[in-house]
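Make up an example, fold above all:
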Amino acid sequence: MAAFYQDSRRSALFRERANRSGPYGEPTTCEVGVLEWSPGYPRGIGEIIKTNPKALPLRVQPRVQIVLAPLDIPHGTNGAGIQALFDHFAVPSDFISQRLESVTHSFSAVRDGSSYYSYFHFLCKNVTVRSVDGRAPTIADPRGAVLSQGDWTWIRTSVFLRWDNCDDNDKAIVALIIFSASPEMRDRCQRLWETDLSGVLTDPFSLFVICLDELWLQAQDLVRAVGGEFNKMERTALDLATFSTESDADSRHDFVGLHNIAKHIIYLKENSEAASMTMSHLQTFHQKLLNHPPQGHDAMPTMQMTSQMLAQKAVQFEVWKLRMTSLEQRMQNIINLVNTL
């Protein structure tokens, strides 16, 4: 029945945009990293196996597989490889459509027969603090500083989960694709192999907890970076408020930098709200799953633990929202102050 809702035009549009951006490439030229586990595997730091999307179907099917793939955008020579991943894992057309539209918030979980397909997108304003031409560190686009406090880069990560034979723990197969995982997330995935992964077969949404935790940590680094630069501009504005003439203030205040900092805060606040919405939808879905576990009563302890961890992560995302609300209000105060100088 799920096929009824799929739109093949989304894949066609992905290919069309990829072709416009340059050579489409071949699936074999797109490198992905794979972590694999089945019962009986020894514990230890997981080995990332380098391969390509075309070779994935030829591998012996593991019970748990995490694929670390490039960013799923229709650009460059990875286009054919990304499309091959979409085809191999039967990624829904809505997932592709939402990436093409660069949505800030998305979550989906659909059961089709004995399989679940679920995903979310994460889009967040990036902020890079670095030294330019030997000057004091400031926010500067890593591709080249043009305007004061300017950075036009973004963090984009997508996570897709497929859970086959979900009703039978002895036959369950879990595949997780992380598009554009940070180095820290890749390391976190490897360290999962030091633990007992059998619970993932009972509730693979536990893997979403890990991904969301790493994305939250990444976001907090950005909040601190923006907050640090804002604190400098706030102090400058307060110092300028003591000047006696308007010309003194005008000659020393960085209005372009103030505008860009304000813009970063607006974007990050929107991103925090979108991430909280994703958490809310994920929690609602998981609660329904918990009420009727696919694998019966025996799955309850594992699923309850996942539910508790989701609640904890939801609180963390609320903290992100509160921090951004505070920064936004402080920024408005400074803008009001500067307008009076």
Observations:
- The longest strand covers residues 115-125.
- The radius of gyration is 23 Å.
- The CA atoms of residues 266 and 328 lie 7 Å apart.
- The mean pLDDT is 91.
